[in-house]
Each structure stands twice: as C-alpha cells, then as structure tokens.
## 1
Amino acid sequence: MAKKFKPGPYNYCDYRCERCDEREDCRVYKENQERILQHYIKGEDPSDPEVFMNDLKEIFEKTQAMIKQAAAERGIELDDIPDEEEKRTDPHEYAIYNLAYDYFIRAHRLIKRLEAEGIPEDIEAEFEDFVWYHALIVAKTGRLVSSFDDDFFDPEAREIEEEGTLQVINKSIMYSRNALNKMLNELPDDFQDIVDLLDILKRLEIQLKTNIRKKIDN
Ligand code: SF4
C-alpha cells in the first residue's frame, strides 16, 4: 500500500535559506549555493529580480521532479504520471493570479525606481524582504493555479500541495505587508504607490480565504 505522501520541506518553503533550520538536510539548499556561486562567477547579481525569477523557475522544475521521484518511492505508480506534455493552465484565468501578477508588476516598477534613487539605510532589511517576496508571491500563486489541472496529484497529495503552497503565499504576504508598512513611514514621496500595493495584498489575502479557484469574468 502506498505510504502517506509527504513532499520535502523545500516544496513549501520561502527559499530564505539563511533563516531556515533545514539547511543541513536540504538538497535544494545545496543546489542553490552552487547556483549562487555560478551567478557570481558569471558576474550576475543573484538578487536581481530577473535573475531571481529565472532561478525560481528552475527550482520549481527541479522540485517537481523530486516530488515525483519521492512519490514513486512511496508506491505511487509512475505509470499514473502522464507522459505527454501536461495540459497548460493559463494562470490569468484565475482571480488570485491576476491580483498577484498586478502586485508583481507594480512592485517591480517601484523597486526599480527606488534602486535608482537609493534605498535609505533604515529600511534596507525591509526593502530586501519586499524585493524577495514580490517575486515569490506571483511565482507561488502561478504554481498553485497550475496545480488545479495537474493530473499527477491524487486528492490527498493535492491537498498537501495546496496547503503548503498557501502557507508560503500567506507568509510572503505577511512579510511584504510588514515591509511596506515600514517603507510607508520612510518614503513619503511613494506613499500612494505603497498604499496601492497594500490594497492589492489585502484583496489577494481575502480572495485566498474565500475562493482560490475563482475565475475572472471574460
Ligand atoms: S530551500 Fe532553503 S528555505 Fe527551503 S527548506 Fe531548503 S534550506 Fe530551507
């Protein structure tokens, strides 16, 4: 009989490895260290949002492969995994993804402007959180809505997957909100943009609580 399916911690973490107790046993952490080293060797900044988004994509693909391998080792038939190209979900069909995407685009614009102007020392840590989580929220929300149509997951595995992903999104929202509230006090010129971002996070949080599968009206 198949054992209870339990993905590794890297499947539902926020990739803030420097704050994580699982590093010693984490395969993704070890691969991340190698990836970061490669960025430095190539003269790339690993915290650059575009570099980070590419890394996330790669991490997700590898994580998915690890989950499938772990599931197979626990008796879930590999034959259940479709060989053909998986059906692609358009994430923009979903209300939560559109909110996360809108947040990402607006946050990205603000990040670029603030980087050009210079980040006040008092909010460096919050700005770092803001940058990190603005990309993670949209990436994890995209992953969540893509899993709705993924035939690989049985109901039990799907529930675990969704719960884990939702936890990361909610944690990311919490850190982002804390960062933005601090930035609000320190960046009066950007008051309206920051308030707008907080409003999108609030709407995303409400939508996550009420109906994660809500589709937008065409
Ligand atoms: S990837 Fe990093 S944050 Fe995630 S479980 Fe591994 S060590 Fe922890």
## 2
Amino acid sequence: MSQLTKWDRRYLALAKEVSTWSKDPSTQVGAVTVGHKKEVLSQGFNGFPRGILDSQARYNERQTKYKFVVHAEMNAIYNATYSGVSLDGATLYVYGLPICSECAKGIIQVGIKKVVIEKCKEINNWNESVKISEEMFSEAGVEMIIEDLYQLSLKTKNQ
Ligand SMILES: [Zn+2]
C-alpha cells in the first residue's frame, strides 16, 4: 500500500516535469518544494548558476560539470531564497536521483521536514553520500519516503 496521497503523486509528477528542463545530457533531476496549503513554493533542476554559460561542451567535460553544477534540491532552496520564501516545515519532492549529503545538509538547515523521492535505478546502489543523507535525515527528524511509482502502477494494472 502506498504511503502517498494523490497530491504527493501530483508533486512527484511535477518534479519529473521540472527535471526535463535540465540541459545536462546525462542526468536530469527535478525538485519541487510545497507548503502547508499544498502550494508550490519553489522548483529547481540540476544546472549551472545564473549567468554561467551552460554549454554542451561544459556538460560533456565531467570534471567541469561537477564543479559548475548546482543540484536540483539546492536550486529549489536557492530559488525560494531568491523570492524571499521560507521553506520552514515544507515538503520536498525529488525526481531523478537520490539526495546527496551536501543537499541533505541544506534541506535540514532550511527547515524542510519531509522529503518524497521517486525510486530510481541509482537508489539501488546507495553510495556513501546517500547513506549519510539517510542518517542525517533520521537524526534531524526529516521524514523520508521513497516511492516506487513504477511498481505501484504495475500493481494497479494487475488489480
Ligand atoms: Zn545533491
């Protein structure tokens, strides 16, 4: 049985849509923050900072890309800051990749209380950074839900 409500699924679908806005040819991640009244507070996708040329050449050069890129989760946080919106008590929806430990720190510090991630292939190979995120979320009291929407839709079809 899914822990997700209809609204959770809608916001995961929105995060998936936002992920397609990324110009990174190999990885597209989308993040959406939502407030108590189910209102969208901000969105973000993985990309370079404003004013930094996001050329395919830079994306193709891995070391350059890793140094320049802002993760989707942090962009959602920065975009909220840009508009002066508090994320205290907000829920974060992420599509595309598990949350790294750097983003986890930002998520905790801005007061996000719940994180909903759609299960992706990389989530099966939990690396060290993701394990640290999980540990920090549990210690800081951030609820984390990993939802397998693909499995869910299969189950629904078979019923
Ligand atoms: Zn990250």
